[in-house]
Amino acid sequence: xxxxxxxxxxxxxxxxxQNYFCKDCHKQFVHHLQLTYxxxxxxxxxxxxxxxxxxxxxxDIVILEQVSKGKVLSxxxxxxxxxxxxxKHYNT
Length: 92
Description:
Elements: E1 7-12, E2 18-22, E3 28-29, H1 44-53, H2 58-65, H3 69-78
Antiparallel strand pairs: 1-2, 2-3
Organism: Moraxella cuniculi
Protein name: Transposase and inactivated derivatives
C-alpha cells in the first residue's frame, strides 16, 4: 500500500503508557494523547518560543501551558533567538 505507515504496539512504559514502534522510521514513541505532562509533547517548544518572543513572562508560560519552569528555561537556553532591548540605554 502506498502511504500506509505500519505502527505496532511495543510494550508498556514504566509509567503505564502504551509504547508504539514505527516500522518505517524505526522509532519508538508514546502517542501524544496519552502524555499527561505537556512538556513531553512535540508542539510545546515552538509554542513556548512564540510566547517568549511575544513578551510573556516565564511565570505566565508555566501557568498557561502547565509545564515546569525548568522546561521553559531549557527552551530559552537552547533557542538561538537574540532578544534585543527596546532601548539602548535605560535610566537608573
